[in-house]
Amino acid sequence: MLAEVLIFVPSIARFREDYLLSRLERAQIASLALLASDDMLSQDLEAELLQNAGVLNVVLRRDEMRQLILDSPIPQPIVATYDLRDPGAAELIRDAITRLLERDEQVVRVIGNPVREAGLLIEVTLETSRLRAEMIDYGLRILLLSAVISVLTAALLFFAARGVIVAPIKRVVDAMQSYASAPEDARRIITPEAKVLELREAEMALQTMQTQLTGALRQKQRLAQLGGAVAKISHDLRNILTTAQLFADRMEDSADPAVARAAPKLVSSISRAISLCESTLAFGKAEEPPPRLSRFALAPLVDDVIESERLAAENEDVSFSVNVPSGMTLRADSEQLYRVLANLVRNARQAIVATGEFGEIGVSATESDDGWTLIVQDTGPGLPPKAQEHLFSPFSGGTRKGGFGLGLSIAADLVKGHGGTLDLARTDDTGTTFRIVLPKAVLRFEEAAE
Fold first, then answer.
1. CATH architecture assignment, domain 294-448
2. With 90 as the cut, is the pLDDT of residue 51 above it?
3. CA-CA distances (angstroms) from residue 212 to 100, 191, 222, 326?
């Protein structure tokens, strides 16, 4: 539209100027014919000359004298005078637009320079109806030509864009759809072919992503198959070890001193093997069930966890403290929250016992407008740097020697299922603090697991 305006407006202004100049030229020729005949033309011939020139009157100034050469009755007063001897572009455009918008019949005066210096100036009066009609006709032709050029340009742009941009993009989309239907098939990975640099970079990035994703899917499939095999082996091995543990328990009552000394170590080893099998089976489940949210008092649940660990640490130099308001209730799955707290407290107890020194474990809870915060802290030796790097990763984030790193991973997944977070707040040589944050806002489990 801007191009249309920049083309149409100057063109119509130029057409109007040429039209008026042509009328001045015709009027000059008619006046010269009259002068050549020494004013001996008949009135009919003068009227014919004016009609051919398309004007009403002609005034020619020669030798400082203003002379009315040809005249005819003027149907109405003159409303405007236009001087074309040195017009400005803005003036011509303004007068042209005004003439197009003015629909009433008017009489105007036009002044210009005579052709070939045949006088000082020439002045004519004319009606504007024919001028406006000629301008409209010319404008329509300009608009039609512009429309044709625009259509051809749009067609060329369409086919150019379709060939250079749309077709390669459609190819990328088709490649993505084909890959999505079978991402394990490496034959469906796109091969960059685009000529446009940006599209080729997009294809190369897509190729890299598809290659990595295909490799990850293959690895995931192999790991899934391996996990299924490990789960089956762990199930059968747990049954075998359970039987071995029964016989090992009986060996502790043996009168043979050598057997009595070896039996506790054997029982400990078998217990660890059974624990590994059970942890592997628990982690190998497809997914944890969604939490069953309900309101319950937090203090009794924490007391149960502490009491269980207190019994396990009966002969160990570990103390426990609880700082949970007696009236605090929260909305969560009590069984899953018990497992989370039990894992954290058990890890803290085992870390303190491993040092052989006295230690303390504390569980506290606070409530705010946004949610509940549970703190589990101990005075143990802190977590080693290697354990901190993969703290919540299964089989790689073990916090103690002989651990498998499943407890914290399972605990983090359970808290995440509530829409909350489990993170390491502090760890150094004076102890470790874990923080659990459970939101009060009720989210869909699918959103909470993202």
1. 2-Layer Sandwich (3.30)
2. no
3. 68, 14, 15, 53
